Target: 10487_t:CDS:1
Amino acid sequence: MHTFLQIVEICDNFPYPDSSAEFSNVVPLTLNKTKIGILLPSTIDILREYNSRLDPAPLEISEKNVTFSAHITNFQERTEAMKQLFDTLRSEKKFAALEGWRNELYPVYGDINHPFNVAFVMERAATPILGIPTFGVHLNGYVKTPEGVIKMWIAKRASTKPTWPGKLDNTIAGGITYGFSINETIVKEAMEEANVSADISSTAVPTSAITYFTVTKFGLQPETQYIYDLEFPVDVRPKPLDDEVECFYLWDTDEVKKNLLEGNFKPNCALVVIDFFIRHSIITPDKEPDYIEILTRIHRRLEFPNPKMI
Model:
């Protein structure tokens, strides 16, 4: 059994500046002196070798910084440089992360001259290689009994999923791909994953965002998740529509808590549930000794540019 704080620490596991020297040798990826990603030394070695093959080289690489070369100046040129880079490294099997190629383009932020602050777009699977911040949406679906008791709709991930197969998940969740707004992503994922119509999913209420920084076998992943709540009509049940979800459970919060503490949730989805529990006073400061630490760790300040959605 875990504590709630231990669950948070599993996901938010990149060391804080005063806690460890383990990642003291990481190097920023920058654009116009703004840090847009973060690189491990092993990644820099591979980038340096790739860079040496091309003339002109697409990157400027030093011991303290990696950035685009001076001849790469705009959104299109950066996007094409990243495409060529990762198409090549994928064909050469340089990174395990690229085995999970998604054919999904994620925006990378940091160019204030581009709409929404987008600097370029790149393949989703490659983002942890460059330590690129990613953004997604997670929705907590729930119902209230006539007595006011909350029950939550919990998804079980399909056993065929390449990541976290069979683990428990939030009702609806997905990354925000390039060209989609936050609300459009909610509506799209609701239909694809749970067969929930737009007239219902569009009533979901934005409640908060959580942030954390995860280290995985694929690299470094700072993440932000926009959190929505949706009180389901009592006659509406989410149903799997694609191959992402095996089934949905309707559980009272004690059952959800039991599965949280047993480690049955996908780690970042566990954080979304913990956030829901805090906001609905299921986790309270009088009964949770790590209350402040939990709040701090699921709202970590990430030193990267954010989207400008308006």
About this structure: The first strand starts at residue 27 and ends at 31. The chain has two domains: 4-13+134-297, 27-130. The chain is about 30% helix and 30% strand. The mean pLDDT is 95.
